[in-house]
């Protein structure tokens, strides 16, 4: 069973205000009429009244409490010690950066996470395309044997067609240095 039916639900806030003694005159009569007819709301009113009555008399209860000077001095000393410990320059910078980051990123955290995912995807694609381009460039260079065979075929083609317009190009020399046995000794000049 529900605590409040649909008719009682709209009187719930008024019942709380009535129990605290803060309800205005016009809604008070409607709320009191409802309380007279509804047993569930009467029980609710009694429980709220029991909880709110000590709170309504807080000024009378706490006006007798006075803090002596020794206790007040100790509280002041402890409070100032904690405040100075928290406000050291290192902590101030760190906490201000944390507050700025929280204010900057937290309201739009899903947007920032989306941006980060997009940039990481772009970075991954860029790195993989660089690696594949380097691999392709290394694998696409023809070997010296292939260049020589191409040039021989080109020479045969020139002979067959009878055209000597294309100059014969020497095959590229290998990029490796010659063996030490074939190198000439260099003379040191003084």
Question: Can you give a write-up of this model?
Answer:
By secondary structure, the protein is mainly alpha-helical. Among the domains are: 6-62, no CATH class; 108-163. The mean pLDDT is 77. It has nine helices and no strands. The protein is 71% helix and 0% strand. The radius of gyration is 46 Å and the shape is elongated.
Describe how the helices and strands are arranged.
Blueprint: H1 6-9, H2 12-20, H3 25-37, H4 39-56, H5 58-62, H6 69-86, H7 89-105, H8 109-140, H9 144-161
Helix pairs in contact: 2-4, 3-4
User: What would you call the structural class?
Assistant: mainly alpha
Largest sheet: none
Work out the helix count. Answer: 9
Q: How many beta-strand segments?
A: 0
Overall pLDDT score: 77
| Fraction of residues in H or I helices | over 70%
Element pattern in H and E? HHHHHHHHH
Note the overall shape: elongated
Q: What low-confidence regions span 5 or more consecutive residues with pLDDT below 50?
A: none
What portion of residues belong to β-strands? Answer: under 5%
Which value, in Å, is the CA radius of gyration? 46 Å
């Amino acid at each position: 069973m529900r605590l409040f039916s649909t008719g009682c639900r709209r009187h719930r806030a008024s019942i709380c205000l009535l129990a605290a003694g803060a309800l205005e005159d016009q809604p008070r009569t409607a709320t009191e009429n409802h309380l007279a007819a509804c047993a569930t709301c009467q029980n609710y009113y009694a429980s709220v009244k029991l909880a709110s009555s000590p709170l309504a008399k807080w000024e009378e209860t706490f006006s007798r409490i006075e803090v002596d000077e020794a206790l007040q001095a100790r509280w002041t000393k402890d409070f100032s010690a904690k405040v100075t410990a928290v406000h050291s320059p290192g902590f101030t910078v760190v906490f201000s950066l944390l507050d700025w980051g929280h204010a900057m990123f937290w309201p739009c955290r899903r947007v920032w996470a989306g941006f980060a995912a997009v940039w990481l995807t772009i970075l991954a694609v860029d790195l993989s395309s660089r690696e594949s381009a380097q691999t392709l460039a290394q694998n696409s260079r023809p070997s010296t044997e292939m260049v020589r065979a191409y040039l021989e075929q080109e020479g045969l083609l020139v002979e067959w067609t009878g055209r000597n317009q294309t100059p014969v190009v020497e095959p590229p020399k290998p990029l490796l240095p010659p063996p030490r046995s074939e190198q000439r000794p260099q003379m040191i000049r003084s």
